[in-house]
Amino acid sequence: MKRWSKISFSLLLIAFLMIPLAACNNDSTKEEPKKLEKVRIAEVTRSIFYAPQYVALAKGFFKEEGLDVSLTTTPGGDKTMTALLSGGVDVALVGSETSIYVYAQGSNDPVINFAQVTQTDGTFLVAREKIDNFSWDQLKGTTFLGQRKGGMPQMVGEFVLKKHGIDPHKDLNLIQNIDFANVANALAYGYIMHQKK
Q: 41 with 72, same domain?
């Protein structure tokens, strides 16, 4: 009788373990479509520095991870942060200084920096005419098109200039009133003349 009990118990155990397998849908080749989580991103500018994001969007990498990402460009940190604070977007791709400004204004719901997309600032020093043997001291006395006061590109630019012995507010005619989206056009079309004072 003991042997019969052991066999019965074993069969019962096997039957019990097979229930989950039998409950599974036999047509396992059909996968239900994943419900994608919508994420709205606002970027402060179109930049080659954000190329990995553009590739991920174009190649569907976000969708593979279950994300339906929409991307808009909102030129200027102030506009990008406004979009985030007003609930128009979920994530802002913008310089970290903007969160500091929001905090300094006493926000009850401060924004949080949670990722670093680029390791360095995406600002380049350019001129309208070719310079064969550039040296930093050639900038002294020129008109220099800077960025928005307090913005990351301007702070990084000033750091680099000072590192090379140039006081941006004394050694240059520093212009900072051109909207970010128009900086390249201002230089290209001659609004800013890079001439000695």
A: yes
pLDDT, tens digit (0-9, with 9 covering 90-100), for 71-103? 999 888 888 888 998 999 999 988 888 888 888
Place of tokens 């979009």: 83
Structural domains of the chain, count: 2
Q: For residue 132, which amino acid is it?
A: D
129 and 84 assigned to the same domain: no
In the 8-state DSSP scheme, what is residue 34?
A: P
* Window from 3-7, 90-94, 114-118, 133-137 with minimum mean pLDDT: 3-7
| Distance (Å, whole) CA 13 – CA 145 | 79
Q: Is the model more confident about 45 or about 140? A: 140
Inter-axis angle of helices 77-85 and 97-104, nearest 10: 60
Same domain, 143 and 179: yes
- What pLDDT sits at residue 167? 95
Q: Which domain holds residue 192?
A: 121-197
Q: Are strands 67-73 and 143-145 parallel, antiparallel or unpaired?
A: unpaired
